[in-house]
Amino acid sequence: MGTRIKLLFVLICIHALLSSGQNQDIVILQALKDSWQNTPPSWIGSDPCGDKWDGITCTDSRVTSITLASINLSGELSGDIGQLSELQTLDLSYNKGLTGSLTPDIGNLKKLSNLILVGCSFNGPLPDSLGSLPQLTYLSLNSNGFTGPIPPSIGNLTKLYWFDIADNRLSGSIPVSDGPTPGLDMLVNTKHFHFGKNQLSGPIPSQLFSSKMTLKHVLFEDNQLTGTIPVTLGLVQTLEVLRLDRNLLTGNVPSTINNLTLINQLFLSNNKLDGPLPNLTGMAILNYLDMSNNSFTPSQIPPWFTSLQSLTTLMMQNTRLQGEVPADLFSIPQLETVILKNNRLNGTLDLGASYSNHLQLIDMSSNLISAFTQRSTYSANLILIGNLICMELEATASYCHNSTESNSSYSTPPNNCFASTCSQYQVSSPNCKCSYPYTGNLTFRAPSFSDLGNSTIYTSLQNSMLTSFESNQLPVDSISLSNPTKNADDYLEIILNVFPSGDERFNRSGITRIAFVLSNQTYKPPHPFGPYFFLANNYDFFSDAPKGKHKSISIGLIIGVSAGGCVLVLLLVVAGIYAFHQKGRAERATIKNTPFASWDPDKGSGDRPQLKGARSFTFEELKACTNNFATAANIGSGGYGMVYRGNLPNGQLVAIKRAQQGSTQGGLEFKTEIELLSRVHHKNLVSLVGFCFDAGEQMLVYEYVVNGTLKDSLSGRTGIKLDWMRRLKITLGAARGLHYLHELADPPIIHRDVKSTNILLDERLNAKVADFGLSKPLGEAGQTHVTTQVKGTMGYMDPEYYMTQQLTEKSDVYSFGIVMLELITARSPIEKGKYIVRQVKEAMDKRKDLYNLREVLDPILALSTEQLQGLERFLDVALRCVEETGNRRPKMSEVVKEIENIMELAGINPDVESTSTSESYEGKTKGNEHPYLNDFSYSGGLLPSELEAK
């Protein structure tokens, strides 16, 4: 009996401590409420957690997240915030009414991982206590009015991933460590230094950079930095974007800069740099180069310019260039803009016979060019005003006058409907619905293109953003983009309208969730947009009505809360005594209802799942290998939840799919799923390493596949060059994986979501089929189909399955045929409403070489010097796979045999592995996102053929 009394005493003490923390959080939130205006109408009642205050997230009745972006808050952030000891996320972005300094008490939030105050009106110095936040991964303070120096203590933030203090009035030098004093050189795990548009001065310390750093973005533009570019910058070989423009930098550009072979955008313009032009040979994926308005040594256009075959924009005005312009400069395949004005270029300007068909602007004004040779009709805007050629005879030519053309315009068109006539303040959405959109400016700090009228790239931006909103289950019907413009900082600004679903207005919860996806950089834009920030406009059309008057905390409330706590303590005593009497019954009920309850993985007791090679992980084990599920470890998200990269104690890299609340299955269903996945073992399938069913969590642990998706490689995002031989090997590997599922797995499995984003490439470019989230087993002997709800991905879906709801192995075959067409065209299954099958069939002529498909082929294949042996047979197999009815399609075993025969006829051994990706390909993988997710799931709607007909 004494033991029971002690246990009850311990429980009472624990409850008293918990109640104390809960009560403290309540008081603090009430204090914050009293210091702010325009708090949400739902902020009534005495319990922010139980009464579900908008923007407040609690765990075990403790406040862990405050996300109140874009709701017109005003006032100051009081020091009370520092007492929310369990707070992990604080996002108050886009509230221009929030003013005052950032309280030093912020440093008391030892569990804070996200501090996001974008686009407010905070001012004053940054507190040194920011360096006392050991868990901080995201620090976004941009677009405020902060002044003073960067606190050196920030160098203590070893987990910091995102560091954005741009667009403030910060001054002083960039701090580096000195003895016991920390500095920013200690941030070796940080990926983003966004310091642009401040008043930082002094030299860039050479100590700031080292080979230990993993920086992707160094954005120091528009400051007052002096001295030379440090040689050590070349040690940070992970860099993708470098902006040092609009400073006071002097001296030579260090030769080590050409070590930065992953650079996409390089801005060195508007400084006082001198010496020879830097040699940038080796920057194979450089898209945007601007070295304008510097005092380099006079020189001719260097031959290495033409080696930059990924260039879209070349800006070299006022850089003391001289001599003739080489014609092959304009043949760079993706070149859009060439600005070489205010130099000493002379002779004849020749665009060549095969200049880039993407060229939009060639500005050679204010040079000494005396003639222009035109071998073919050009469509680019050519400007030669201020050259010798325009002095007399040629003065009437169009290129001898100031261009009146402005930036190309763009606006998202309606989705096959007629725009509605809406009332005041309402806007017609792309789906032609009148509503009140959430609006703001998307600003991209380093876009890698200059053609602002290219609708294709904006469509990709729109689609990726909408997909991100959908995957985060946000109440968004559609989005529109409009009015893209370049500002004086060479930032790209686009107006964004986000339209609500299900209603004509957003409520506050919807706005704060959408704002957080943008402020927290949860949404990742596609190439070529680069780093961005969002500044929202006030939203004045909330749908949620006030629920009561603004009430401050009272003595009565505190007494009531305390009295309630005492009552709870008494109830706990009674409940504890009753619990001892009911212990046996509860244990039996738990064992009965929870399949894992009596399972001891070490002893094999109870209802242990029948696993083959997969192990059980505890929550603490997976928490440790992902650094507490740190933001830096996050590699994607989807409808199932978040995906994290983890490193097991044995060194194995894994991808961990963590189910979010609301998407978890029952224990029995989860047990059944992992039993199914654990039976799947094949070198061309992503293998299940293990699972976690612990602490209320459901997680699947897969092997980590380093080179991302086939889709990424086909789109050029990874930089991996896929020649014909590699494409055949990838096709064969994926086909063998599906053949295993269909005919060798026990029971046979239908994947149901075969697509290029679910085919991963390992370090040797071997294909591995992934993501079995929609898979269905054929459980009974002789069973030929499964009748099930239609799910899959638009463009890849079997039309017969759609019509009958009968899922068969031939449904996977159809999807695989689409992937084969994707492999030779590098086109998405549906582009601009056109279906890839119909495009190929309409262009095909079997009487001609390569079936007359050179115009449809991926340019990498069409322009390749290698012989595409077997391409016609490959196409025949693909078209057999996409026959309208399943009985006319081959089995996967037949597809495997056909691909093997094609490879053997081409002189390729089908059983020899590919070379590693470090051999004979251009560029390197970037590892931006990882693909253990469905990027666009589909459950109903129009078939691709019906979509095109519409």
UniProtKB/TrEMBL annotation:
Membrane-spanning residues: 555-580
A Pfam family this chain is assigned to: PK_Tyr_Ser-Thr
Keyword Transmembrane helix: yes
Domain Protein kinase: 629-903
One GO cellular component term noted in the UniProt record for this chain: membrane
Keywords per UniProt: ATP-binding, Glycoprotein, Kinase, Leucine-rich repeat, Membrane, Nucleotide-binding, Receptor, Repeat, Serine/threonine-protein kinase, Signal, Transferase, Transmembrane, Transmembrane helix
UniProt signal peptide: 1-21
PROSITE patterns documented for this protein: PROTEIN_KINASE_ATP, PROTEIN_KINASE_DOM, PROTEIN_KINASE_ST
Compartment list: Membrane
Main localization (coarse): membrane
Enzyme class: transferase
A GO term for molecular function: ATP binding
Family: Belongs to the protein kinase superfamily. Ser/Thr protein kinase family.
Protein name: non-specific serine/threonine protein kinase
